[in-house]
TrEMBL record:
Keywords: Signal. This is SGNH hydrolase-type esterase domain-containing protein. Coiled coil: none annotated. It comes from Parapedobacter pyrenivorans. The keyword Cell cycle does not apply.
Length: 244
């Protein structure tokens, strides 16, 4: 065997070993790009005062872990899970209105869904009616999950984050019902779950902080909350990749 053949065989062995190592670690082989859609409201959308929202941070974490990925930020301020015909307080394309174009059209492997605050919000305290009733919120999440799975993708559900001290306790109590509903749906439909609410309360306890230390304005996540969220989502996704 001449030197050229020996070099070729050695190089081939190195490539095979490297490929096997990547497979064993659950990494995505070069050429495969994990497509992820971050679907939600203003807690997902880029925002002034935030250096990097969680989809940007998640992208960096996955790249650092050897997972090529493309993340589509489909967060839209004012958006709830329903349609504009359900509640038109904000004149935007809401979850149901833009779901096909903003989510399914990208053929994602994963969709991260983060709604709840706008759905639970009460504009007229005399009626006490939320923009999207809890039963409709649940049905909308189920519709998203089933549609994504029919298209070959899967879901990470995020619970809404808590509100800060500037808001009335009854708003927090109402929002808690939407959080619990999200958790129940994740368990029933066997989706991945990140309980952002729980992450925040754990952080506050461990750091002897207040909830407002994680919020820009009493409602929207600041960089610290986006970091917590991105790390938790990355943990769920990397665990699934490693086990697939």
């Amino acid at each position: 065997m001449n030197d050229r053949c020996r070099i070729f065989r050695f190089a081939s062995m190195v490539l095979l070993l490297a490929f096997g190592c990547l497979k064993s670690q659950g990494a995505v082989v070069e050429g495969d790009t994990l497509v992820i859609v971050a679907f939600g409201n203003s807690t997902t959308a880029p925002r002034a005062g935030v250096e990097a929202v969680y989809p940007e941070r998640l992208h960096r974490i996955l790249v650092d872990r050897g997972v090529p990925n493309r993340i589509v930020n489909a967060g839209l301020g004012g958006s709830h899970t329903g349609s504009i015909t359900d509640n038109a307080r904000h004149q935007v394309a809401h979850g149901r209105d833009r779901f096909k174009e903003a989510v399914l059209a990208h053929q994602p492997k994963w969709v991260i869904i983060w709604f709840g605050i706008n759905d639970a919000w009460v504009d007229d305290e005399t009626t006490g009616q939320p923009r999207i009733p809890l039963a409709d919120y649940k049905q909308n999440l189920i519709f998203f999950i089933q549609s994504i799975r029919q298209a070959g993708g899967d879901v990470v559900l995020l619970t809404p984050n808590p509100l800060g001290a500037r808001y009335e306790p009854w708003r927090l109590n109402r929002l808690q019902r939407y959080r619990k509903a999200t958790i129940r749906i994740a368990r029933t439909y066997h989706t991945q779950l990140v309980d952002v609410w729980g992450l925040c309360t754990d952080y506050v306890r461990q750091h002897r902080a207040t909830m407002d230390n994680l919020l820009l304005d009493g409602m929207h996540p600041n960089d610290s909350m986006h970091k917590l969220t991105a790390e938790a989502v990355a943990d769920r996704l990397l665990t699934k990749i490693d086990n697939d």
